[in-house]
Request: fold
Amino acid sequence: MIIGNFYVILVGIILVIFVLFYIPSYPKTTFIKWRAKASDQLVLAVMYMVIQMERVSNLELAIEFVARHTAPPVSLDFMKVLWDVESKIYSSVSESLEEYIKTWRGWNDDFIEAVHLVQFSLQQKDDDERRRTLHRSTIVVLEGTHQHMLKYAHSLQGPMQALHMLGIVLPVMALVMLPLIGAFMGANIKWYHLVIMYNLMFPVLVYYLGKDMLQKRPAGTSGGDSYTYMLAKYHKPYIKIGSLKLRIPPALFGVIVFFIVALPGLLYFFSLTITYMSGLPGKEILFSIPSLLFTLDMILAVGLGTGVYFYYSVHYLIKVKHKIERIEAEFPSGVFQLANRIKEKVPAEVAFEKVAKSIHKSDIGEMFWLIDYNLKKQGTDLEDAIFNKRYGAIAYYPSGIIRSAMAVLVDAAKKGPTSAAKSLFSVSKYLTSLRRVNDRLKDLLADTTSSMKMQISMFIPLITGLVVGLNVLITTILRNLGAVLTDLPIQGGDSAQMNLGTDLLSIFQFEFMIPAFIAALVVGIYIIQIVCLISYLVNGINNGYDTIELKYLIGRNLFIAVPFFCIVAALTSIMLTNIINIMPMAGG
Reply:
């Protein structure tokens, strides 16, 4: 108010309103984010409880098994269930667990019902009836997950249309109208208005719309975010040149790529700045095609630099992660074969070699060969061959599902081959059910996520690139019109013609029009923002909270979308400008 600038006051009011709404809701937002991470692990928690309860009908051991083999935050929740009993807050594990599952009422009632069935199995004397009850608990939680995800997939249609309007249609319409608005209201339209609209308002609206979509996402079957563990396990990213591994921080690598690609644009605009400071006329250069092309070079540099940062930070992890996912997909079959071998009274140490030979071309075959190598060459026992932190199989394949299944095997093998075979058959059965539901969930979300991927990789860059070229066309035509109207009083002797030119010039404000390169720069930055936001949304819908997949997806999409946008914008602008330059010659 002291400055007296309307825009400063407006921005200040918006910031105050944002802070007043954001700060009070921050604890709730944090809780929802934490709860969403936990909800994705509930299916695995029930699975682990059932697997352990089928071996030993002891609720405390089942809860401890979940706490050991799931990732935070669910592991912390189950640790607290045990801690509350140890600290005498509750008198029994069943009472402590009951109080915990109450916190999920209204969030995931299927989880509550499944846990009640697990508790009910303790009261059943008949072993077959107890196993049927435990199996029923897994069916309840898996079918519930499938039904919730089905409703969620149908509910995404409306938000997706709103996202399409806010993220694509509205920005494109505003960009098409920009040259005309600038011609009539050029003195009132400044470059920072475009920045506020394209790089602040639209991204914030898209972010909050996407955030609302992710908050409504029901529980999936994710095992948790393994980024922190894998980053610590495989250390820093590197570039492999022959046998040499160069370790460069991702941020530094991104900056290097930016400066290499942006060097022509930086030199060009530096020379323009020197020209302007020396007092030489340079305004017309800003409306030229070279200015636009070097601006697109700057956008390309920002996009590639950002993409390199995200992709390079996880490129060495994504291969390991995908290999682990392939092993998890093959794991039920491998465990089933292993159980069959052990059922034939073959010791577990010998069974790994036999199964590895039969599936030697698969990824899980490699893991079994590693276990067999540790048993024979290292001379270790079964537990050390699998869980040794330095050379054990789990050290190379850090998967919660594999770790839990192998823990069941090691523990059951101590009681004999019959117990080990029964435990592995149960593990194979439940993991097969889990895999089947995972495939169904991906099928349910495939239409939505494939549409979003197509938008950010092709549709958005193509449309915005064409509109940038159209913006150049309209701006050039209007400026040529301004030059013609300016020459009318000079070339024509007729007073009516002179008055017509003067009247039209008083309507238009050609001298205040925003150069096309500024619009291209603002829109180019918006393309980078919207690609990152929609990639975040696609990853959240598909994978939940998965940092490795998120960074990989952002990097890959930036490598596709930003160069595509720059190429389309450059070619369209050059072609349309050449057409304008040819037309007067043809008319002459």
About this structure: The chain has a mean pLDDT of 79. Residues 40-153 form one domain.
